[in-house]
Design a protein that fits this description.
Belongs to the MMS22 family. MMS22L subfamily. The chain contains 57 helices and 4 strands. It is an all-alpha fold.
Length: 1241
C-alpha cells in the first residue's frame, strides 16, 4: 500500500496509467508530511498529488488498482464487492456513522505522551475504514452502477429493484451523513500540533483525525454527488426526504447546498483567523489553519470551474461572491439566515483579504503543482464593487485600511488580466484628494516618505512603483497613493502589452481632464509632490515627451508663490533625469530650467549679505539644480548641444557668492562633470582609433566630440577663471581647489584646444605654472595638486614631449617648498589665538599624508632617480618621512656634484641645483617673522644647515656663492643677532644651537674649496663664530653644557670633513680678538666658561704653535689679573696644555714663538705683577725648564729695572721670589743667582 502511495506522486497527464496490481492506499487529507525542503505544497497522499482530482474531472476509474477482488473488507466485515452497496447500503452507512461515533468518543480521553501512540493508532484505523468506504462508493458507482433510462425494462428481480433505487438511497444517505457530521466550524477547538516519538514518527491526537475525517467526508460527498450526475446524466431524487420533509431533494440541490455550506464553513474558519491579523500583515498571513484546508479550497476551485464550463452551474467566483455579499447585509435582510457565517467586524477588509488569498490558489494545477504561467480566472466585477466601497468617503474608510485594500488590489493585478476600470475608480478618489499626505499618525513610513528629498528619490519611487515584484512590507513603506501608482503602472503596462496604445489613451484622457488652472492653483506643497509622482510614473510607462510637455503647460498655471517651491525644481529635474535615462534630447527642458537657475544664482549673489532665511531658500533651489545636472552628466550616454545650456554663466555668479560649505558642493559637482567629460572623450578617442569605422559612424563620433568640446569650453569659461582668481585666498577649501585644478590640467591634456586663449599655446604648462610651480600658492594646494598630476602617466608623458625641460626641476622645487613650509599654516591664525605648538601637533595629518604621497611620486621621476644613481646612495622607493627624504636628496645632489669631473658637467649641475632651490629664502622667511613657530624654526635651520654642508662644493662656485651669503646673513646674522642688547627668541636660539655645526662645517669647506679666496666669506665665518661662541657659553664651566657647545661640535663632528683647520684657526682668532684684546686690566665676562671652552678646544684638537701664540697672552693675562680660584685653575690648565703643545710642535726644542710670548708678557707686566709672573713661570719650569732659562736675561733685567724705578735699592722680597724660581732651574739657576748677587750695580 505504501508503494502505491509513493507511486501516486508521479502521476502525469497521460490517461493510460500502468500501476501494479497491489492495493493502493486511497487518497485522503494529510498535513503531517515532511516539507522541510519547501518544494511540496501538499502531501503525497492528498487528492491533488495522488491524481484523484484529475481522474474525477476526466471521468476515469477513481482507484483502478483497488477493489479488484470478489470480496472487500469494510468495517471489519467481508462483503461482495459488486453487490454490497446495493444490498446493504443503509447498513454500511449505519456502520459508518457508528465508526464516527467511536472516533468522537476518543476525544474524551486525556492525550498525554504515554497514551498518544495508542490513541493515534485507534483514531487512524477508524479514519482509514471510513475513507476506504467512501472510496468504495465512488468505485462502485463508476464500475457497477447501471444507468437506468426511460427505455429500460421494468425490474423483475428484487436486486434490480434495489439497484434502481440505489442512486436515490445514496442521495438520502449522503444528506443524512452531512446532517450527522454538521459544519466544520462547529467542531471543537483542535490542536494541529503533533507528538514526535523516538523514531521521528508524528503521532496525532484524536481531534486531528476527526477534523481531517470531516474534511474527507465533505470532499468525498461532493465527489460522489458529482460522479452520480456524470454517470446517470439525469436528476436523482431523494425519496426519503421528499416523502418526510416535502423538499425536492435531488443530487443537484444537495451538491449545491453542500457546496454552499462548505464554502460557508471555510469562510468562517478564515474569519476566525482574520480577527487576529493586523492590516500590515494581511498578505503575509495565511488564512488556512493547515495545508488540508488550502487543498480543499483548491479542490473546490477546480471542481466548480469544471462544472461551470460543462453545465449551467455557477463558477467558483460566483459562489464565493454570493456568500461574501451576505457579509455586508444586515441580519434581518439576509437571504439565508441559516447560513452559519458569523458577522465580521470588518467585512470589507475581510472580503479583500479572502479574495486575494483564494485568487492565489488558482495557480495550482490538478496535481497541486504551482504553475505561474497558468491562466487564472479573474473576479474583477466583484473587486470593482469592493473598490468603490473602499473609497466611499461616507463609509469612513481610514488610510490604514485603504492601504491594505489597495495592496490586495495590487496583488490581484499580478494574478489577473489588466483592468482599466479599477484605475478609473481609484483616480476618481485620488484626483479629489491630491493635497492629502495619506499618512498614518501612529505609523511613520519606513521607506519612501511623503517628503521627497531629491529628484533621484522621486525617480526611485517611480522605479519601485513600476517594478513587477513589490515589497511585502509595502503597507509600512508606502502610502495608499503610492500603492495606487503601483496599480496604475501595472495596469497600463499590462494593458499596453496586450492591447497596444488604446488603453493608455483612455487613462491619459481621464487623468489629464482632472487638471486645469483652478485645480493647479488649489494644489499645496504635498499636492504638487503627488502631482509630480503621478506624471513621472505616467512618463515612465508611456510617452515621456508628451507627459513632460503637458506638465510644463500645467506648471504655468501655478500661483507665483509656488514657482520658487523646491518641489517644482525637484519635479522638473526629475523629468530632466528621466529624459537622460531614456537617452532623449533634453533641449527644451534644459533651456527653461537653466534660465531659472541663472536668475536664482543672480539673486543669490545679490543677497549674500542679507538675512540667512532667503539665502537658505535660494541655496536649496540651486543645490537641487547642481545635484541634478551632475546626475544628468553622469548618466548621459552621450552629450548633445543642449547639455552646454545647463552650464551657463549662473555658475560664475554662484561661485562668487558661495561660502566654504557651499563651495565644496559646487566644486564637487565640477570634479564629477570633469571626470565624466574626460571619460567620454577617452571612449570617443578609442572609437575613432579603430580601423574599421565607416564614414557615417566617424561623422557621428566627430559630432559627439564637438559637443564634448563645447561643454568643456563652458567649464573653462565659468569655473576655471574663478579658481584662478582664488589661488592665493583661503575662501576656497584648499583640497577642493587642488582637486579641481588637477582635473582641469588633465582636461587640458585630453582636450587642449578647449582651454581659454590666455592659457594657450601650452595650456598644460600654463595651468601647472599657476597651481603647481608658483611660489605664492599655499603649499597644501601645491602638494595635493602635484600628487594628482604625477599620478597620471599621460600627463607626465605629455610634459616630457612638450619641450618643457624644466618640468621635473620645477616640480622638485615645489616639493622642497612644500616640505619647508609644512608648518607655515600654524602662523596664519589671529594673534589672540596663536599658540606655539610642538612639531607633532603643528602639521595637519591630512597634509602630512599628502606630502608623503607627493614625495613617493617625486622619487619616481627619472631626474631624481638619476641623481641617486650617480651619488651611489641608498634610494628610497617609498619614502615615508618627507623631511628625511629631503635630507637624502640634498646629500645625493652634493655627492653627485663632487663625483663630476668635467668642468661643463659641474657648471650644468650648479645651474640645475640652483633651479631646484629657486627662491628658497622666500620659502622660509615666514618662520623668521614676529610669530614664532618652534617646529618651523627647527625644520628651517636644520634643512638649511644640511643644505650648506651637503652643497658646500656647489656653494664654493661663483654662481652659488651669493646664495650662501644670503643664507648666512638671513639665518645666522640677521639684524637681531647683531644688536647685542636684544635677546634672540628662545625657539630661534635653540634651532640655531642644534644646526650651527652644519653651517660652520659647510662654510669651512667652502673656504677651503673656493676657486678664488674670498675675504668676505672668511669674514662671515668669523662673524658667525664671534656671535655664537659667547651666546652658547654656559654660565658655569661645570656640567655637560660646554661639551654640547655648537662651535666645539662643529670641530668634533668634522671627521668626515678633512679641511677643517680654517675653522679652528678662525675660532682662535675670534677668541683673541673678541675676548683677550681688552684694554688695560679689563677681563671678559664669563671668563671661567671661556677658559673652559679654550681648554676643551685644546683637549679635542691638535693646537699648533701659531695658535698658542694667539691664545697664550690672554691666558697669561687672566693668570695675572684674575683673583677667582676657578679662573686661576682653568688658566693654569690652559697654560700647561699650551706649553705641552709647543713641546710637541717644536720636536723637543723650545719654541721661539713661545719664548717671545713670555718675553713680551714679562715686559708688559713685570714692573707691577712680578710675584705673579714668578709663580706662572714656576709652573712653566715644571713642564719645560728651557723655556724659562731662555727668559732669564729678560727676568733679571726686569728685576733691576723695577729696583731702579722705585729707587729703594735692592728689593729683598722680590729677589727672594726670583731666587725661588731660579731654584727650579738647576745649575743654570744657581749660576744666575750668583751673578745676580755679585752684581753691585
Amino acid at each position: 500500500m505504501d508503494n502505491c502511495s509513493a507511486a501516486s506522486m508521479f502521476l502525469t497527464d497521460s490517461l493510460e496509467l500502468e500501476l501494479g496490481t497491489e492495493w493502493c492506499k486511497p487518497p485522503c487529507f494529510s498535513c503531517g508530511f515532511d516539507n522541510r525542503g519547501g518544494g511540496n505544497h501538499f502531501s503525497g497522499e492528498s487528492y491533488l498529488s495522488s491524481g484523484a482530482l484529475k481522474r474525477l474531472i476526466l471521468n476515469l476509474d477513481p482507484l483502478p488498482t483497488n477493489f479488484e477482488e470478489d470480496t472487500v473488507e469494510i468495517f471489519g466485515i467481508q462483503w461482495v464487492t459488486e453487490t454490497a452497496l446495493v444490498n446493504s447500503s443503509r447498513v454500511l452507512f449505519h456502520l459508518f456513522r457508528q465508526q464516527l461515533y467511536n472516533l468522537e468518543t476518543l476525544l474524551q480521553a486525556s492525550c498525554d505522551f504515554g497514551k498518544i501512540s495508542t490513541l493515534h493508532c485507534k483514531a487512524d484505523n477508524i479514519r482509514q475504514q471510513c475513507v476506504t468506504f467512501l472510496h468504495y462508493v465512488k468505485v462502485f458507482i463508476f464500475r457497477y452502477l447501471k444507468v437506468q433510462n426511460a427505455g429500460s425494462p421494468v425490474p423483475v428481480h428484487p436486486y434490480e429493484t434495489l439497484e434502481a433505487q440505489l442512486p436515490s438511497v445514496l442521495v438520502d444517505e449522503l444528506h443524512g451523513l452531512l446532517l450527522y457530521i454538521g459544519h466544520l466550524s462547529e467542531l471543537p477547538s483542535i490542536n494541529l500540533g503533533a507528538f514526535v516519538n523516538q523514531n521521528q514518527i508524528k503521532l496525532f491526537p484524536p481531534s486531528w483525525h476527526l477534523l481531517h475525517l470531516h474534511l474527507d467526508i465533505h470532499w468525498l460527498v461532493l465527489e460522489i454527488l458529482h460522479m452520480l450526475g456524470e454517470k446517470l446524466k439525469q436528476v436523482i431524487y431523494g425519496h426519503q426526504f421528499m416523502n418526510l420533509a416535502g423538499d425536492n431533494l435531488t443530487n443537484i440541490s444537495l451538491f449545491e447546498e453542500h457546496c454552499e455550506n462548505l464554502l460557508c464553513d471555510l469562510i468562517s474558519l478564515s474569519l476566525n483567523r482574520y480577527d487576529k491579523v493586523r492590516p500590515s500583515e494581511a498578505l503575509t498571513s495565511n488564512h488556512c489553519p493547515c495545508s488540508c484546508i488550502k487543498e480543499l479550497w483548491v479542490l473546490l476551485i477546480h471542481l466548480l470551474e469544471h462544472r461551470s464550463k460543462w453545465s449551467l452551474s455557477e463558477s467558483f467566483w460566483n459562489w464565493l461572491n454570493k456568500l461574501l455579499k451576505t457579509l455586508f447585509e444586515k441580519s434581518s435582510d439576509r437571504r439565508r439566515p441559516s447560513v452559519p457565517i458569523i458577522q465580521p467586524r470588518d467585512p470589507l477588509g475581510f472580503s479583500w483579504w479572502i479574495i486575494t488569498h483564494v485568487a492565489s490558489f488558482y495557480q495550482f494545477d490538478r496535481h497541486g503543482t504551482p504553475d505561474k504561467m497558468r491562466q487564472m480566472e479573474s473576479n474583477w466585477n466583484f473587486v470593482e464593487e469592493l473598490l468603490k466601497k473602499s473609497i466611499n468617503v461616507q463609509d469612513g474608510v481610514l488610510e490604514e485600511q485603504l492601504r491594505m485594500h489597495l495592496h490586495c488590489c495590487l496583488t490581484l493585478c499580478d494574478f489577473w488580466e489588466p483592468n482599466i476600470a479599477i484605475v478609473t475608480i481609484l483616480w476618481e478618489y485620488y484626483s479629489k484628494n491630491l493635497n492629502s499626505s495619506f499618512s498614518i499618525s501612529w505609523l511613520p513610513l519606513k521607506g519612501l516618505t511623503y517628503i521627497i528629498k531629491s529628484p533621484l528619490s522621486m525617480l526611485e519611487m517611480v522605479k519601485i512603483c513600476c517594478c513587477d515584484k513589490q515589497d511585502d512590507d509595502l503597507y509600512k513603506s508606502s502610502s495608499s497613493y503610492t500603492i495606487f501608482l503601483c496599480i496604475l503602472a501595472k495596469a497600463v503596462k499590462k494593458a499596453m502589452k496586450n492591447n497596444g496604445p488604446h488603453p493608455w489613451k483612455q487613462i491619459k484622457g481621464r487623468i489629464y481632464s482632472k487638471f486645469h488652472q483652478k485645480r493647479m492653483e488649489e494644489l499645496t506643497e504635498v499636492g504638487l509632490q503627488n502631482f509630480f509622482s503621478l506624471f513621472l510614473l505616467l512618463a515612465a510607462v508611456s510617452e515621456v515627451e508628451d507627459v513632460a510637455s503637458h506638465v510644463l503647460d500645467l506648471l504655468s498655471f501655478l500661483k507665483p508663490s509656488f514657482v520658487t517651491s523646491s518641489i517644482i525644481w525637484k519635479g522638473q529635474m526629475a523629468f530632466l533625469l528621466m529624459y537622460t535615462q531614456k537617452n532623449l534630447d533634453i533641449g527644451v527642458l534644459a533651456e527653461k530650467f537653466s534660465g531659472a537657475f541663472r536668475e536664482k544664482a543672480k539673486e543669490f549673489l545679490v543677497s549674500k549679505n542679507d538675512e540667512m532665511g532667503q539665502r537658505q531658500t535660494l541655496w536649496t533651489l540651486l543645490s537641487i539644480y547642481i545635484d541634478g545636472v551632475q546626475e544628468v552628466f553622469e548618466t548621459s550616454h552621450c552629450l548633445y548641444p543642449s547639455h552646454e545650456k545647463l552650464l551657463n554663466d549662473g555658475f560664475s555668479m554662484l561661485l562668487r557668492a558661495c561660502q566654504e560649505s557651499e563651495l565644496r558642493t559646487v566644486l564637487s559637482f565640477l570634479q564629477a562633470v570633469l571626470a565624466r567629460i574626460r571619460s567620454m572623450h577617452q571612449q570617443l578617442h578609442q572609437e575613432l582609433q579603430k580601423e574599421s569605422v565607416d564614414l557615417i559612424v566617424q561623422a557621428s563620433l566627430s559630432a559627439k566630440e564637438r559637443h564634448l568640446a563645447a561643454v568643456a569650453s563652458a567649464l573653462w569659461r565659468h569655473f576655471f577663471s574663478f579658481l584662478k582668481s582664488q589661488r592665493m585666498s583661503q575662501i576656497v577649501p584648499l583640497s577642493e581647489l587642488a582637486d579641481a585644478a588637477a582635473d582641469f590640467t588633465l582636461l587640458a591634456v585630453d582636450m587642449p584646444s578647449t582651454a581659454p586663449s590666455d592659457l594657450q599655446p601650452q595650456p598644460v604648462i600654463s595651468v601647472m605654472q599657476l597651481f603647481g610651480w608658483d611660489d605664492i600658492i599655499w603649499p597644501q594646494v601645491v602638494a595635493r595638486y602635484l600628487s594628482h598630476c604625477l599620478q597620471n602617466s599621460m600627463l607626465c608623458e605629455a610634459l616630457s614631449h612638450t619641450g618643457c625641460v624644466s618640468f621635473q626641476a620645477l616640480t622638485v622645487r615645489s616639493w622642497i617648498r612644500c616640505v619647508l613650509q609644512m608648518y607655515i599654516n600654524s602662523l596664519y591664525v589671529p594673534d589672540d589665538l596663536f599658540i606655539d605648538i610642538n612639531p607633532g601637533q603643528a602639521v595637519e595629518k591630512e597634509y602630512l599624508e599628502q606630502l608623503a604621497e607627493l614625495t613617493r611620486l617625486l622619487f619616481k621621476l627619472s631626474e631624481v632617480k638619476n641623481i641617486f644613481s650617480k651619488a651611489q646612495v641608498e634610494y628610497l622607493s617609498s619614502p615615508e618621512d618627507p623631511t628625511k627624504a629631503l635630507v637624502l636628496f640634498f646629500e645625493a645632489v652634493g655627492i653627485t656634484y663632487g663625483n663630476l669631473q668635467e668642468l661643463s658637467d659641474k657648471s650644468a649641475m650648479v645651474t640645475k641645483s640652483l633651479e631646484y632651490l629657486g627662491e628658497i629664502l622666500k620659502y622660509i622667511k615666514p618662520y623668521l617673522g614676529k610669530k614664532i613657530c618652534s617646529a618651523g624654526l627647527q625644520l628651517t635651520y636644520r634643512m638649511m644647515g644640511i643644505l650648506v654642508k651637503s652643497w658646500a662644493q656647489i656653494f664654493a662656485t661663483s654662481k652659488a656663492q651669493k646664495l650662501l651669503f644670503r643664507i648666512i646673513d638671513c639665518l645666522l646674522l640677521p639684524h637681531t643677532v647683531l644688536q647685542q642688547e636684544k635677546e634672540l627668541p628662545a625657539p630661534m636660539l635653540t634651532a640655531i644651537q642644534k644646526s650651527l655645526p652644519l653651517y660652520l662645517q659647510g662654510m669651512c669647506i667652502v673656504c677651503g674649496q673656493s676657486q678664488n679666496p674670498n675675504a668676505y666669506l672668511n669674514q662671515l665665518l668669523g662673524s658667525v663664530i664671534e656671535q655664537y661662541i659667547g651666546r652658547f657659553l654656559p654660565a658655569s664651566p661645570h656640567g655637560s653644557g660646554l661639551g654640547q657647545h655648537p662651535v666645539l661640535l662643529a670641530l668634533r663632528n668634522s671627521a668626515a670633513v678633512p679641511p677643517i683647520s680654517p675653522l679652528k684657526k678662525c675660532i682662535v682668532q675670534v677668541i683673541r680678538k673678541s675676548y683677550f684684546e681688552c684694554k688695560g686690566s679689563l677681563l671678559p665676562p664669563r671668563l671661567a666658561s671661556l677658559l673652559a671652552f679654550i681648554l676643551q678646544l685644546c683637549k679635542e684638537t691638535i693646537i699648533d704653535i701659531s695658535e698658542v701664540e694667539l691664545l697664550l697672552p690672554g691666558v697669561l693675562k687672566c693668570l695675572v689679573l684674575a683673583s677667582e680660584p676657578q679662573v686661576k685653575r682653568l688658566a693654569t690648565e690652559n697654560l700647561q696644555y699650551m706649553v705641552k703643545a709647543c713641546q710637541v710642535g717644536s720636536e723637543g726644542e723650545p719654541a721661539a714663538q713661545l719664548t717671545s710670548v713670555f718675553r713680551h708678557f714679562i715686559q708688559d707686566y713685570g714692573m707691577r705683577y712680578d710675584y705673579q709672573i714668578y709663580g706662572i713661570l714656576e709652573t712653566v719650569a715644571a713642564l719645560d725648564q728651557r723655556v724659562v732659562i731662555d727668559l732669564l736675561s729678560t727676568l733679571t733685567q726686569s728685576l733691576k729695572d723695577s729696583e731702579r724705578k722705585w729707587g729703594l735699592g735692592r728689593n729683598i722680597a722680590q729677589r727672594e721670589a726670583y731666587s725661588k724660581l731660579l731654584s727650579h732651574l738647576g745649575q743654570v739657576g744657581q749660576d744666575e743667582m750668583q751673578r745676580l748677587e755679585s752684581d753691585n750695580t
